[in-house]
Design goal:
67% of the residues lie in helices and 0% in strands. It is built from eleven helices and no strands. The protein has helices spanning 22-38, 40-50, 56-76, 84-100, 103-125, 137-151, 154-165, 173-193, 200-203, 209-220, 227-244. Helix 2 (40-50) packs across helix 5 (103-125).
C-alpha cells in the first residue's frame, strides 16, 4: 500500500523522559555505536581518515561534528530537542544517573563509552584500537599538570591573543566566536602539544605528531572527570579564553 500523501494531523510536541534509567542509558550507547560503525557517521569518519590535506584541527572538528551529530540524532528519537540544549539536558540526567547507580553499572557504562570513543578516533584517524592503552590516575594527573603549565606560558597566551585579535569582526557573533575557538585550538594543538623537540606528546610517551596527539587525547579522556585534572585544565582554560577575548564560561577543546 502506498504511503498517504495527505497532510498528517498535528501532534503534541514530543518530550524527553523526565529521568533516565539503565535501559535508556545503555540503549543510547548501543545505538550511538551502531551508527558509528555502520551509519552515515561511519562514512563521514572514513572520509576524514582519507583526507590527506586537512589540518589536524580541521579533522578533529569534523570528527566531533560527526560524533555529536550522531548523539543528537539518537537522542531526538527519545524526544530530546536536536540541538545543544537537548544534548545538555541528557548529559545532566546522565550525570545524576551515573552518580546514583551501582558500581557495576558505572563500570559497564564507562567501558562502553570508552570503546565507542576509541572506535570514533580509530576510524577518523586510521589508527589501530589496540594502540589506545589505559593510564593510571597518578600518571594522568602528572601529565595534565604539565599540559596546564604549558598552556599558561606567556608565549602561548600572547600567541592566542595575537591570533584572535587578527580575526575580522563579523555581524554574526556566533561565527566570530567559532573562529576564535578555532584559533585557540590551533595554538593549543600546534604550540602546546606538538611543538618542541621532543614535543609534549612525545615527552609524555604517546608518540609523534598527529597520532601522538590523538592517542594522548583518547587515553586522557578516561580521566577528564577527575577533580584534580579538572582543576588543572579549568584554571588553564580560564587564562586561555581570557587571552582570546572569549567568555570564560564557553567551551573550548583542548
Amino acid at each position: 500500500r502506498a504511503f498517504s500523501s495527505a497532510v498528517a494531523p498535528q501532534t503534541t510536541a514530543m518530550r524527553p523522559p523526565n529521568s533516565i534509567n539503565e535501559e535508556i542509558v545503555m540503549g543510547i550507547q548501543d545505538a550511538t555505536r551502531l551508527y558509528i560503525r555502520h551509519g552515515v557517521a561511519s562514512q563521514r569518519l572514513k572520509e576524514i581518515s582519507s583526507d590527506t590535506t586537512a589540518s589536524l584541527v580541521a579533522k578533529w572538528q569534523r570528527m566531533m561534528e560527526a560524533f555529536l551529530g550522531t548523539q543528537v540524532h539518537v537522542l531526538a528519537g527519545l524526544g530530546y530537542t536536536p540541538d545543544e540544549k537537548g544534548l545538555g539536558l541528557y548529559n545532566q540526567q546522565l550525570a545524576y544517573f551515573v552518580q546514583n547507580c551501582s558500581p557495576e553499572i558505572q563500570e559497564e557504562f564507562r567501558v562502553k563509552g570508552r570503546d565507542t570513543w576509541r572506535e570514533v578516533l580509530s576510524s577518523a584517524f586510521g589508527m589501530e584500537i589496540d594502540t589506545f592503552q589505559e593510564l593510571s590516575i597518578v600518571d594522568a594527573r602528572n601529565i595534565m599538570h604539565k599540559v596546564a603549565q604549558k598552556m599558561q606560558e606567556e608565549e602561548i597566551l600572547n600567541s592566542i591573543a595575537k591570533k584572535c585579535a587578527e580575526i575580522e569582526p563579523d555581524d554574526n557573533p556566533q561565527i566570530e566566536m567559532a573562529r576564535k575557538h578555532t584559533a585557540v585550538q590551533e595554538v593549543l594543538v600546534n604550540d602546546v602539544y606538538l611543538s618542541g623537540n621532543p614535543s609534549l606528546v612525545e615527552e609524555c610517551g604517546f608518540g609523534e605528531g598527529e597520532e601522538g596527539y590523538v592517542r594522548m587525547q583518547c587515553i586522557m579522556s578516561e580521566h577528564q572527570s577527575d577533580p584534580l585534572i579538572a582543576q588543572y585544565i579549568g584554571g588553564a582554560m580560564m587564562k586561555v579564553l581570557t587571552s582570546a577575548g572569549l567568555d570564560v564560561s564557553g567551551p573550548a577543546a583542548t
